[in-house]
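Structure ticket #2291
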Amino acid sequence: MFFEGSEKKAEVVVNSQNLSLLNDISNTFWQELVECCNAQILSSIENEHCKAFLLSESSLFVWHDRFLILTCGVTQLVKSVEYFIKNIQAKDIAHVTYQRKNEYFSNAQLSSFGDDIHLLSQYLTGKAYRFGEMYSHHNYVFHQDNGFQAQPDDITYELLAYQISEEASKLLTTHGLSAEKIREFFCIDDLLPDFIIDDFVFDPFGYSLNAIKGEDYFTIHVTPQAGSSYVSFESSLDLITMAAKIIAILKPASFDLLGFNDTEFADKVNVAIDKPYISNSLVSKKLDNGYFVCFANFITPETYYSSPFELDLTGESHAL
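Resolution: structure written out below.
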């Protein structure tokens, strides 16, 4: 069974002097926004700073001055962004960013990054970049070009792990596996002390976790199936310092690290990531919106090559 775990991501910042997304926007609005991309809200947690929704495809986080949404599968996240733009006054929208990474089977998606940006360009002007090589792992980033400047302390990270070890895949595809066992596997109590946790185990496989503490957030999304396994981490916590522990748990064949506004990203990555991984990409750029974006891809040298694999011609077309 195949599921596209790779996420699409959007962050929208609002003028919090005019609008509080926590106080002025109802849960019904967020439900409708999520449904626009063909996902559903499963549950939620909140504190005075943040509300976190666990989705059927990833997560939505809402603060007073912004929201962050990630969706996977064949969702059309751009439709949710369009819904927000259409239903909130333009003067209250300070900035829009939209991000999309390479998928395992891009031909199964209902739109491409280019299609999505074409839609957003009907409402706002912006710039787009690719981080990473086209033939390898890469991330596309689009941002509104309207004079907005991110605060230097607006720092976030992503860790994206591909082709996790056979042992990790087998454990995470065990039928009847509980959320407690998965949290134990990821050492969540050690990684996230005193965080409010909300998680869900999907049938037959898959796992999502949201966690919040004050204004900090942390989310995990697991697609464990062998052959297309993918595990993503996104957080305001420093995932570079956590990377060694996470990589030791999953032992992926390759992984990406992204940093937003961490000016020491390259030095920290070079210290934190050790053998057997080797750097396949390490690039950065200061965007016009004030975000300093860094992208690193690490791989393990190939010591084994897959034998030719016969395809099922009667299966779903994207399996080809």
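Closing remark: The chain has a mean pLDDT of 92.
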